[in-house]
Structure formats: C-alpha cells, structure tokens
Amino acid sequence: MNLLVQTLVAGLLLGGVYALIAVGLNLIFGVVKIINFAHGELVMIAMYATFWMWTAWSLSPYISIFIITPLMFGFGVLLQRFILQPMQNSSPTIKIFVTLGLSVLLQNLALVLFGGQYRSTTFPWAEQNFSVLGVTATYGRITAFLVAIALVIALFYLMKKTLTGKVLRALAEDRETAGLIGIPVKKYYLVAMGLGTAMAAIAGVLIGPFQSVFPLAGAHFTLLAFVVVVLGGLGNMAGSLIGGLFLGAVETLAGTYIDPALQQVAVFAVFIIVLLVRPQGIFGGSARNAEVGLK
Amino acid sequence: MKKKSLIWTLGLVAAAGLVPVFTSDQYILHVCVMILIYVGVTVAWNILAFGGILSLGHAAFFGIGSYTVAILYVKMDVNPWLGILAAMVTAALGSLLLAVPLLRLRGPFFALATLAFAESLRLIAIYAVPLTNGSVGITTPPTQGFALISFSSREPYYYIVLAMALIAIGISIWIYYSKMGYHLRASASDDEAVRALGVRTPRLKLAALVISAALTGAFGAFAAMYLFVIDPETNFSTPLYSIQPALNGIIGGMGTVAGPIVGAIVMTPLGEWLRTTFSGTTQGLNFVIYGVALIIIVRVMPGGIVSGMKKLYRRFRPENRSDGTAPDASGPIQPEQELANSEGGRS
What we know:
Largest sheet of chain B: 2 strands, antiparallel
Low-confidence stretches of chain B: 321-347
Membrane topology (chain B): Multi-pass membrane protein
Strand content of chain A: under 5%
Largest interface: A-B, 50 and 50 residues
Subcellular location (chain B): Cell membrane
Structural class of chain A: mainly alpha
Helix content of chain B: over 70%
Protein name (chain B): Branched-chain amino acid ABC transporter permease
CATH topology of chain B: ABC transporter involved in vitamin B12 uptake, BtuC
Shape of chain B: globular
Number of domains of chain A: 1
Region (Disordered) (chain B): 318-347
Strand order of the largest sheet of chain A: 1-2
Oligomer: heterodimer
Order of helices and strands of chain B: HHHHHHHEHHHHEHHHHHHH
Number of strands of chain B: 2
Number of domains of chain B: 1
CATH architecture of chain B: Orthogonal Bundle
Transmembrane segments (chain B): 27-48, 55-74, 80-102, 109-129, 157-177, 206-229, 287-307
Structural class of chain B: mainly alpha
CATH topology of chain A: ABC transporter involved in vitamin B12 uptake, BtuC
Low-confidence stretches of chain A: 286-295
Helix content of chain A: over 70%
C-alpha cells in the first residue's frame, strides 16, 4: 500500500512537469497552428544548458533558470521568425517536415557537440529527501512540481484575464478575422512561440536535477506532450494539466509494477485505449481540433 | 510517350542488373545493396503516402520482419525463404495494431502514433530476452548456400534484393494506377469529398497500411539475412528505418511513383559517404546535414526532387506543351497524374 501511494505521488510530481511541457505545446499548437515535432528538443536544449551551467560555472539550476528561460524565449521567437513564419501558409504536411527536420537537426547537433553519453546535473540540495506521512520525495521533484503547476496556473490566468491572452485566444479562434480587426498577427505568433518555448525550457531546467540528459532525451517529451494534448483537448489548458498528471502517474506506475524499460510502452498503450474508447479525448474536442488533424 | 518511358525503364533495370559485372568492389556492392533495401522500404512507405498518410514508424515493420526471419531460422530451424514470407505476414499483422490510430487520427497525430509504435516495439524487443536475446541481439549462423540466403560475396545478395525491389516497385506502380490508388490519391486531396462519393476510404487506407507493412517486413527480413546480426538498436532504429525512408520519400517526392526511388538512390550513398567521412568523434553530423537539407528542400521544392525536375523540364521545353499532351503522361490518366503530382504530398 505504501509502495502504491509512494509511486502515485512520484508520478503526480513528474506529471506536473509533463503538464507544463504539454501546455507549451498546446499554446503553440492552438495559436500558431504549427505541429511542433521539435518541442521535446526544446526541453532537451534547456536540460543541456542546465547541465553545462552547473558543471562549468557551478550555477545552481534554480539560478540558471532565470538565464535560460529568457534565452529560450528568444530562441523560440527566432525559430518562429526565421524558420516557421516563412511557411505559415504552406500545407500542414510541409510544416510537419520542417519541424521534423528541426528535430533531427537539434538531436544530432547535440550528439555532435556533446556526444551520446548520459549527463546528470548532480545538485545536492535537490537530492535530499522530504518526508510527510511516510511518503518521501526529493526536494528537486517537489520544487519542479510546484513551479510547474504555478506556471500552468499563471498561463491559465494570462490567457483568461489579460489583453495578451485575449488576443492569443482570438488568434486561436480565427486568424483572418483577428487580422482584420487590426491585431498584429505575426507579432503575437512570435509571443506565442516564445512563451511555448519558454515553458518547455523551464520544464527542462526543473527536471535537470533528477533526469539525465542525452541527445535523444527530447523525443520522449514530444510524444508525451502530444498524447497529453490529445487526451486533454486542443486549446484546453485544464485538460492538459490533468492529462499531464495522469500520464505521469501511468508512467511511474508502469515503471514500478511492470518494468522501468516499458514505461513508454505503457504511455502508448494508454494512448491507444483512449483513442478506442474516446477518440475525441477525455475532455472532449472542440471543432478546432479538425484544423490541426484531430478527428 | 509511353513506349519511350518503357524503354527508359528497361534500360535502367538492365543497367542496375549489370552493376556487379562492371565492379567487384565489395564496398560499392554493399552500398548498392543498401540503396536497394532503402528503395524497397521507401517505396513501401510511399504506398501509404499515396493516400496522403505520413508514417514515421516503418522501423516497426522493418524490425518485425528482421526478428521474424531470425527467430524462425535460429530458434526453430525454418528456412529463411519461408521466413521472409512469414515476416511479411507478421509485419502485416503488426500493422493492424495501428489500425485504430490510422482511422481516428489525421496527419501529424497519426505520424506521432507510428513513431511511438516503433519505439514501443524497440523497447519490447529489448525487454523480451527469451525470444529476442534482448540488447545482445540474434546472430544468424554462417552456413552458406542459396537455400539459406547466405553467401561469401555480395553479388548474390545484390541480385536477390534487386529482384525484391523491382517487385516492390511493380506493386507500387500497379497500386498507383489501380482504382484503389486512384481513390487513395483522391482522398489525399480531400478525404471527405471522396467519402461523400461513396468510396470507403478507411478500408482503402487500412489496405495500404497492410501492404506497406508487409513489403517493409520483407526488406527487414532480407536485411537480417544480409547483415547477420539483428538487434533492437539497429533493426528497430527510428533514425535508420523510420526517419530515413520518410526523408527519402519527402526529398524524392512523396506520393509519386518515381519520387521514393530517386530519393533512396540519392540519399543512401550520400548518407553512407557522410557516415564514413564523419565517423567517430563527429557521429551524427550526417543527420545534422539531413535536417538542414530537409528544411531547405521542402521550402525550395515542396513536391520533392521529382516534381522540381518536372517543373524545370517544362520551363525549358515549353514547345512540348503546345500540342496538348504532357511529355510524361499517358492518355486518359493524365489529369489524375497531374493532380497527384501537385497534390499528392498534401494531406
């Protein structure tokens, strides 16, 4: 019983980070209508940045996060401006190829630059245990969860209550009309891509202290984030949050009770089962789902 | 015009058949065998692309094929020729696991499901040690002979895989011009319109998936016999057999008959050269170049090399168009062919 509770808690803590990655993807997806196959690679870049800042300059992840996040925001803006924007009006397939090419490029650039070995950011504070009612978790994981959830809620607030959020939602609904009433569409695409990238980057920094980074580390996050978006519904931030927590739990439970090697298989199995039972996702799909390829 | 293209085809096949006559350099023959394996897998991948369906998980079928022939041969002493047939069956059965995502998901989401499927199989192959020997992999015995598809030189392998590739190309051409291909290509342009006309596109897509998987399985089985060692990291490799065939197809021209062949013939030697030139410390550089090439090529030539060449050809040979017949089309099929050339890559 204790093992079950322990596993569930670990899963939910990790799931919070997954939710943050998925919310970023959901934002890019919903607003810019780009199917970003390189989303996980953005997480991977941030993980490497965390590792190197800690190894080379002894910068703790909780300090370097304030350097990496703005840089990655800028990276997202540049990606949008120089790689994605020129293809904005191409067919969906062409857009996939471009982000797929980007993903292949970034993965292998990491391989060329850093080699294939696993690298861990060993930050002692993050590895200390914190226990409550017999359930234990490391400070690193708890911090990651809390920051991730806080950011998801902050984005939720931004989207619902601020003018920027209103504009982004308007763009997600109808780009043409938004343009007609004078919204600078391209500028807000840059904002959305920057925000989505920054969220992926923050997630990468947060998991740095307890997950090793290697060139292919991002692929898994891309898959997870896509599954979460399918489960939670496009443009549905709350759905992404719950979907992320759910997948974190599934993955960790599979790791404990079946085999750690088969975690990803469990995620895929859940994905197929959900598609069979509720093809529109757990929280229902809006009409907008068709636009990016969900039936 | 049709006669002319037939002569061209026969000439190219004859030239391909004569390669071992002109060179006995085993490395060149090895590259040629790899080219033909990739021609086969890319052509198989492209059968789905006729319907505008993008797969990023053909490593799954390739790996299933490799493991089927290896397990049957090594553990149950089944002849590898029978093993290749069995591999086609198991790969086809495996593809049925993707039926639900295929029918429920579109474009990018299906592509992602296939990617996850192949990765899951790789992990299962590592995990199921009693059957697959895990990460160590399976080694086929060195006993030689035509009946066992095992030879000391590369020439026989070359002829076998050439025959297999020609069969795959034949099947692909036959599907392309058949009613099924016509419906698939139409569904790539507008699935709902085609369904509204009463065509059961889900069934066609499923058929395309099964055929594509079976063919890929056959090439996976051949590769297992050719390379002797079958392990999860190679035979279920996402970069090698999921991304590479897709890259070949996209760069050559997704959804066209010639595109995947051209793509595989151009990209495989390039990949081999990059790999041998930048091996060791700079491993992965070949894929960096691939990534950049992919981004640039889809921007410059969204339809791939084949349609890019056609456009160039037309630009410089406008007189061919003035008599009303396109230089590369054959009578009544012409409008559809035009359609497929311009729309085939879209979903």
